[in-house]
Amino acid sequence: MSILATQTAQKNDSAKRKPAASVNGGGRPQSFDASRISSLKIKRSELIMLTTQLSVMIDSGVVLSDALDAIASQSQEGNLKTVVADISESVKNGESFSMAISDYPKIFNPMFISMVKASEASGRMSEMLRIVSSYLEFEYETRKRIKGALTYPVIMVFVAILATGMLMFFVLPRFIKIYESRSAALPKLTQVLVDLSNIMRDFRVMSAALTAAVAAAVVFYNWAGTENGRRTLDYVKIRIPVFGTMFIDMIITRSMRIMATMLNTGVSLLETVEVIRGSCSNYYFRQLWSWVDDKIRNGYQLSEAIQLSPDQRLIAPQIIQMIRAGEKSGNLGKVSDKISVFYEKKFESSVHTTTKLIEPIMLVVLGVVIGTIAIALLLPVFRISSIIAH
At 68, phi and psi to the nearest 5? Predict the structure, then answer.
């Protein structure tokens, strides 16, 4: 009890000293608002750089607090400098690195914190940080690739909306006047477009539609935050065609890489499973690893625990077989590493296929929409001469 009380007192004492304001070199901020801690963010590229630098410096024999001070002193004024300096001060005050970074949940996710905590126990922090940095960089490049694939279609959609709006609000009214002056009926498709144009011009209707859309978005956001909402959305994520496979591959890649890293650095299987469970944002994968954790504690092998899980369909049979072979040979860490490498390549292939599909699908949808509108606008043009003649 006395040890716990001492640690609590140190933690509280550290928290009291956190309001201190601007950073001087690598030291503690002199005026830091403690209420901003949980809301601070840094760029993903900055997090990758921080993790990589720490890995290299610790591997070179530099003390953790000195490495943090050096990074803080080299950083420009901003959140990164403030965060690193504060973490350094916390470490100097006796906190573990994992506890210090847990004050910044919007920067360091549960997987990052769990892996750092495990590396502290195994004494191989530099290696673990290198693995985390590699994974963060892989995720960052994947997101950039997907955004890049979406850039061209999004620009095309924006230009198409702009052009369609000009046609509907400036060109179409001229045809309407000509047809009305001749008491002629517009083609049905064109009339539908006219009705839609009139609705969009009606301020009351558009205000009501916008209000309803905002209300629906708020309701959906609140529902998505509930357990039932998260469970439903997570189910959709793993079941949706094409994207579901990519999502599952990403989680398995991450899980097997964590398992390989932690088992090869001497961490126990139970601690490894706990970290993997914390790294999974998907409800069904968390359920899977919770089941596995419980079964292992009751004496089951890892492969048996996965196979008996109600969510075992999330793990391919060949993975279970490879895990069983690793358990029999005593090389579960090496086998997990091979699985992670295989699934990383499979995931990259899934991302490549998906990004290649996104562009043509969006262009086809765009072509259908714009083509329909173009036909609706051209039909009156084809008939204008006969209308004027009569």
Answer: -65, -40
The first and second tokens of residue 34, run together, are 């403690």
How many Å apart are CA 100 and CA 83, to the nearest integer?
A: 10
Number of alpha carbons in the 13 Å side-chain half-sphere of residue 374: 9
Alpha helices by DSSP H, listed for the chain, are: 2-16, 44-59, 64-74, 79-92, 97-101, 110-122, 125-166, 172-181, 188-201, 203-224, 227-239, 243-264, 269-279, 283-297, 302-308, 317-329, 332-389
CA 77 centroid distance within chain: 27
Cα separation, 283 vs 267, whole angstroms: 25
Please give the model's pTM, rounded to 2 decimal places. Answer: 0.67
Cβ neighbour number for residue 255 with a 10 Å cutoff: 27
Instruction: Using CB atoms within 10 Å of the CB of residue 286, give its burial: 0 to 12 exposed, 13 to 18 middle, 19+ buried.
Output: middle
Per residue of the chain (390 residues), give pLDDT as tens. 333 343 444 444 444 444 433 344 444 444 445 555 657 788 888 899 999 999 999 988 888 989 999 998 888 878 888 889 889 998 999 888 988 988 888 888 777 887 788 788 777 788 888 878 887 887 788 778 777 766 777 787 787 778 777 777 777 777 777 777 767 677 788 888 888 877 877 788 889 989 999 999 999 999 988 989 989 999 998 888 877 888 888 888 888 888 887 787 777 888 888 888 877 888 899 999 999 999 999 989 999 999 888 888 889 898 999 999 999 988 898 898 899 888 888 887 877 777 777 778 877 877 887 788 778 777 777 766 666 655
Write the CB contacts of 225 (distance below 8 Å, at least 6 apart in sequence).
Answer: none
Q: Residues for the chain: how many in total? A: 390
Please state, in angstroms and rounded to a whole number, the distance separating the CA atoms of residues 67 and 85. 11
Two tokens, residue 97: 């690195």
Q: Write out the two tokens for 15.
A: 């928290």
The CA distances from residue 38 to 21, 33, 52, 101, 105, in Å, are 16, 11, 23, 11, 6
